[in-house]
Amino acid sequence: MENHADISKVVRQHAEMDTFFTGGFTRKAESSPSHAPQQKDDASLAKAVKELGEIAAQVNQCRKCQLGSLRTNAVPGEGNPNAQIMFVGEGPGADEDAQGRPFVGRAGQLLDKIIIAMGLKRSDVFIANILKCRPPNNRDPRPDEIINCFPYLQQQIEIINPEIIVALGAPAAKTLLNTNKSIGQLRGQFHDYYAGLGSVPIKLMPTYHTAYLLRNYSPDNRRRVWEDMKKVLAELDLPIPEPPKR
Ligand code: URA
């Protein structure tokens, strides 16, 4: 009995979570015009596509750590080589490992909703992870795995050169910012990500991971993520959609 009540509560919470990021918005992912402007000219775009393809090929062959021999598929990342925004998560889960694509499971579906709520499409942004292969049982990434894998992401960031990186969750934020601060301390404000010595810093907004949001349903947590995304839109001079109706 108690179990039934728990399950229906969880179902209701997730339904509400969904409407928070889509409710009040008539946009459909693939039908609405996107506000995201282009940044690269044709030649630089072609170069970026080629270089991103080369990195993906290296990732697919990579055996630098034990995760390489445990994976079904590596997950190099995907999206717009001209993206203004890059979302960076922790590492592939079971669904991503099965498909070779980032954020395609439940956490990914929530990320898609957030992107749509921002007035964008998944194809406007680039989505990648700190780790390109799934750790067994989704355990936390180990330092040696991050050290081996992070250069792939660093190169992707350098090629795409987004205006803003959104770091989803503590492992992504801590790795990109080289800090031990908690996600609670980091989120909600822009930090500087340095692609290399002497390079112009890229603005980085840490926020809660969508998997954390799914596990820790609360209006406050959802509102915090939405506030963080509104700051991202404002920084890019993109229109901020009306808050979802509740
Ligand atoms: N969680 C992540 O951090 N990355 C994914 O690709 C999927 C879930």
CATH homologous superfamily (4th level) name: Uracil-DNA glycosylase-like domain
Span between N and C termini? 29 Å
Report the average pLDDT across residues.
Answer: 89
Query: What is the oligomer described by this structure?
Result: single chain
CATH architecture: 3-Layer(aba) Sandwich
Q: Helices and strands in order, then pairings?
A:
Blueprint (H helix, E strand, L loop, with lengths): L1 H21 L19 H20 L5 H4 L7 E2 L5 E5 L4 H6 L6 H12 L8 E4 L13 H18 L3 E5 L1 H8 L5 H4 L4 E3 L8 E6 L2 H6 L3 H17 L11
Parallel strand pairs: 2-3, 2-4, 4-6
Antiparallel strand pairs: 1-3, 5-6
Bound molecules: uracil.
Provide a descriptive summary of the structure in words.
- It is a single chain.
- This protein is of the alpha/beta class.
- It has a single domain (39-235), classed as 3-Layer(aba) Sandwich (Uracil-DNA Glycosylase, subunit E).
- It has helices at 2-22, 42-61, 67-70, 94-99, 106-117, 143-160, 170-177, 183-186, 210-215, 219-235, and strands at residues 78-79, 85-89, 126-129, 164-168, 191-193, 202-207.
- It has a six-stranded mixed sheet with strand order 1-3-2-4-6-5, sandwiched between helices.
- The structure holds uracil.
- Uracil binds at residues 89-93, 96, 102-103, 105, 107-108, 129, 211.
